[in-house]
Amino acid sequence: MSHHAPDRLPDNQRIVITGVGLTAPNGNSLAEFRTALLAGQSGVTKYEIRYVGETLAGVCKFDALRYQSKKDIRRGTRAGSVGIYSANEAVKDAGIPWESTDKSRVGVYIGVTEHGNVETENEVYLLKGYDYDTQFWSHHHNPRTVANNPAGEVALNMGVTGPHYTIGAACAAGNAGLIQGAQMLRLGDCDLALAGGVSESIHTFGIFASFKSQGALATHEDPTKASRPFDMKRNGIVVAEGGCIYTLERLDDARRRNARIYGELAGYAINTDATDFVLPNPERQAECMNLAIARAGLMPQDIDIVSTHATGTGQGDAQECDALRRVFRESEKTFFNNAKSFIGHAMGAAGSLELAGNLGAFDDGVCHATINVDELDPECALNTLVIGEPRNIGPVRHILNNSFGMLGINSAVIIRKGP
Question: In whole angstroms, how far apart are CA 13 and each of 121, 295, 350, 414?
């Protein structure tokens, strides 16, 4: 993207969001999700998984049979189902006449944190009962575990014949899917992008076990209070599943069909810490945000809401707040919130879901809160962090969405109120 403000770009290079389809632990549509966020309603619940036992998770309850047969669901993956539901809902929401759409000009770009470990764990577990005789191994294993699976299942389900692939970007993947879709539209590779992120992470015991061994898995007697970014008593991550897929179009195409526009992709950036496998680097995170802001032709004080990545880990939250202070100083104009406090960490879907939860602010001027902050950690004290109750902050023009992930991947996406 050039360093020119997007509204100086020609309309065929300006990318807009025209539809949103999602499933979150506390809602199965954008309206339900937004309502839950404004009402302080958590989607975290008790959850049991093999070998780890009782733990906590953000569990989705969407109707998979709305767009799939029982056979499709048996043959495919949970990530595939999440993607199929979200993509179909997005197309419906956008009012796109799907029957008459040229499917060869549709691209599917879906971010994932990991894929294939759910099926591998399940197959190995079943094989144990057959004394490890591989003739009992599922012949569906390979198509289920290939890295392009979630996007491929969406393409198959919807008859898309344009490009499809998944973007592996750890927990920055939801943002990365969105960025990839925008870039492909700009290049003329497709005319409609189904872009975002999905997660089936709660179905693999390995993720829970690994966080637990790191001392990074949240515990609390009340599941709804376990995910508590920025709080003194935060003690780790709540793993969640979910998905959010957007229909992205070039502005001239969206205008031609008189589409409703949720917002415009004003700027974005992805960079890398190059310092540690797991620990974040606030200096690089700040550079990532600053780059996105500069590419959008904006100043930090032009950002009205920052959707923070904060996962509820001791170091991660403090490091991000350090990065936010570097960028926004003590700005009274920029408000900070966090959606993981409601749903847990939806991994590959986190970026796209958390962004979606804030889109309503363009219409109502309300910044949803961060819940479960009973005692703010001084290291996380941002004076405009919205805690407890939603806050009416007046007209909202720009939202910045942070998503960071392991191996030092950082992403920032800026959405401007729709033209």
Answer: 44, 14, 26, 16
User: Residue 253's CB: how many other CB atoms inside 10 A?
Assistant: 16
Q: Which domains does the chain have, with CATH numbers?
A: 6-256 (3.40.47.10), 266-417 (3.40.47.10)
Contact between 251 and 11 under an 8 Å Cβ cutoff? The reply is yes
Q: What is the pTM of this model?
A: 0.97
* Structural tokens at position 202: 């709660």
Q: Could you list the pLDDT tens digit for every one of the 419 residues in the chain?
A: 444 565 689 999 999 999 999 999 999 999 999 999 999 999 999 999 999 999 999 999 999 999 999 999 999 999 999 999 999 999 999 999 999 999 999 999 999 999 999 999 999 999 999 999 999 999 999 999 999 999 999 999 999 999 999 999 999 999 999 999 999 999 999 999 999 999 999 999 999 999 999 999 999 999 999 999 999 999 999 999 999 999 999 999 999 999 999 999 999 999 999 999 999 999 999 999 999 999 999 999 999 999 999 999 999 999 999 999 999 998 899 999 999 999 999 999 999 999 999 999 999 999 999 999 999 999 999 999 999 999 999 999 999 999 999 999 999 999 999 98
Sheet of strand 398-405, all strands in order from the earlier edge strand to the far edge: 164-168, 106-112, 192-199, 242-250, 15-23, 263-272, 409-417, 398-405, 305-307, 335-337
Q: How far apart are CA 1 and CA 291, in angstroms?
A: 11
Residue 73, H or E segment = helix 70-75
CB-count burial class (<10 Å; 0-12, 13-18, 19+) for 3: exposed
CA–CA gap between residue 308 and residue 403 (Å, rounded): 7
DSSP codes, 134-199:
GGGS-TTHHHHHSTTHHHHHHHHHHT--S-EEEEE-GGGHHHHHHHHHHHHHHHTS-SEEEEEEEE
- Check: CB of residue 389 under 8 Å from CB of residue 373: no
3-state secondary structure of 372: coil
Distance CA 171, CA 318 (A): 18
Q: Which two tokens stand for residue 100?
A: 């008459």
Which neighbouring-strand residues pair with 139?
A: none
Query: Could you give the C-alpha distances from 355 to 12, 157, 358, 397, in angstroms and in order?
Result: 24, 26, 5, 14
